[in-house]
From TrEMBL:
Pfam families named in the record: Lysine_decarbox (PF03641)
Reaction it catalyzes: N(6)-(dimethylallyl)adenosine 5'-phosphate + H2O = N(6)-dimethylallyladenine + D-ribose 5-phosphate; 9-ribosyl-trans-zeatin 5'-phosphate + H2O = trans-zeatin + D-ribose 5-phosphate
InterPro entries: LOG, LOG_fam
Annotated source species: Aegilops tauschii subsp. strangulata (Goatgrass)
Name of this chain's protein: Cytokinin riboside 5'-monophosphate phosphoribohydrolase
Entry's Gene Ontology BP terms: cytokinin biosynthetic process
Keyword Translocase among UniProt keywords: no
EC number(s) stated in the UniProt entry for this protein: 3.2.2.n1
GO MF, any single term: cytokinin riboside 5'-monophosphate phosphoribohydrolase activity
Amino acid sequence: MPPPDLTCSSDVNNRLVERGIDLVYGGGSIGLMGLVSHAVHAGGRHVIGIIPRSLMPREVTGDPVGEVRAVSGMHERKAEMARFADAFIALPGGYGTLEELLEVITWAQLGIHKKPMWLLINFTLMATNYCKDFNQRSYQHHFEGMRSAFPT
């Protein structure tokens, strides 16, 4: 039985192709969105990947999928993705996924967009994984050290 994240991404790409929906995504060829982009493109749909130039060496492997637009940075990437997208789907991911998700939710709350959003995420599992990673990377040490940076 495939892991839930892979099943989720497989369901997403199948439904996009079945319904004739094109894909706008962050442009990488790795991870869940890499799998989705390859499958949607193989299913005959148009794929637009929008990626900061600085991330291309790390997130793009092999031949690009569909149309790749290189942009100057993360802010431009998110703005371009939002401009081209008719809706937003969030799959499980890392800190970048969380940041992009919160920005899209904030934009909806502020009335900047009224596009549909689907969150295909187990928030409890995601939060648990973030906490584990946070502790493993010793970020906590840096925050505890803030007391000495700002003495009372």
